[in-house]
Design the sequence.
């Protein structure tokens, strides 16, 4: 994270807050999904509009094809969430859950499966962070903005609204994987710049 956004004490408290939230989210998801979700240590940093392009370029390099779920959160803590699935991520998820999409409307069933996991993960993480910071937030329904498309095509849809934001803001990146499968899913949380004063005020109470 950039010191222009947070001082050392604030960064420490924010890191602890996110780690606690991720732990609670992981426990909740493990219970809901029979213990198969594992979260890695989150990456917390400051980003600008140009970093969105860097993120898109990295995804194109990492995944040949992707599906992307996006969800907006609003209130005192507001921003955008994206969950990125590579093709192997979906295959692993299907295997673990014993999901069979060979019959019926396979695309609809796959989208529902991705939405179920993505919504559970994203909403739990954001709601836990907001609760720990004592900031009000709400979640709009998630939507699939890209489904099994070439990464170069999907990158134009990732965080489209966030390009209008100005200045630096907070981004939380989390990589998670399925138990017994080293296949990553990516969760990215971007906080709107105008929410940063409220975040800093909340952090100051905990220093």
Sequence:
């Amino acid at each position: 994270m950039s010191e222009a956004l947070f001082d050392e004490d604030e960064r420490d408290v924010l890191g602890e807050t996110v780690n606690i939230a991720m732990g609670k989210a992981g426990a909740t998801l493990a219970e809901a999904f029979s213990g198969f979700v594992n979260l890695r240590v989150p990456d917390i940093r400051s980003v600008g509009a140009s970093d969105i392009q860097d993120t898109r370029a990295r995804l194109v390099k990492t995944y040949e094809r992707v599906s992307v779920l996006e969800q907006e959160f609003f209130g005192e803590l507001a921003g955008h969430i994206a969950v990125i699935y590579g093709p192997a991520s979906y295959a692993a998820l299907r295997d673990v859950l014993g999901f069979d999409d060979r019959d019926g409307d396979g695309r609809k069933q796959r989208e529902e499966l991705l939405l179920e996991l993505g919504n559970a993960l994203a909403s739990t993480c954001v709601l836990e962070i907001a609760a720990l910071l004592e900031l009000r937030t709400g979640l709009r329904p998630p939507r699939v903005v890209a489904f099994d498309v070439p990464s170069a095509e999907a990158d134009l849809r990732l965080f489209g609204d966030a390009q209008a934001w100005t200045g630096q803001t907070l981004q939380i990146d989390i990589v998670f994987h399925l138990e017994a499968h080293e296949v990553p899913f990516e969760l990215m949380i971007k906080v709107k710049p105008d929410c940063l004063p409220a975040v800093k005020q909340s952090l100051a109470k905990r220093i």
User: Anything to note?
Assistant: The chain has a mean pLDDT of 81. Residues 99 and 135 are 37 Å apart (CA to CA). Helices lie at 8-32, 49-62, 87-97, 106-133, 151-154, 196-204. The radius of gyration is 17 Å.
